[in-house]
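so my prof wants the structure for this chain in the tokens format not the other one, which i didnt know existed until like an hour ago. anyway here's the sequence
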Amino acid sequence: YILYTAFSTTSALTDWSSVFYSVIYTSVPTIIVGIFDKNLSHKTLLEYPKLYRAGHRQESYNSRLFWLTMIDTVWQSLVLFYVPFLVYRFGPIDIWSIGSLWTIAVVVLVNVHLAMDIHRWVFLTHAATWGSILITYVCLVILDSFPSFPNY
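here's what i got, hopefully its the right format
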């Protein structure tokens, strides 16, 4: 983004969107999934310590998987930036409107990516994951409706 704004300090995201992204849009679903998505009970894990060996042997997560994840992350960020940017480049959309579009796109991507990793769905994981996307839309509509905000 900074390459297209001549290294300006201007941001396409409002301060509120940045704060809400970290606090509401993506952290709440991650915390809820971390609490409720359990493959095995704590008793089973304590009873069978051999289950932890896969982690020590790097069978579940290793440097190859790490680098594949990094490449995938770069790919996703390029797509999320350039597709809206190139589609609306010569259109009437302003910087804050495209920032709102980027916010929605990132929140949807993060939550769908999280949803693909959930093993055990319960009501709260559904509510947190899909509710976060809904809350993002609602918050952006509300924030964009105030005349005092830059993306009014």
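also thought this was worth mentioning. The chain has a mean pLDDT of 83.
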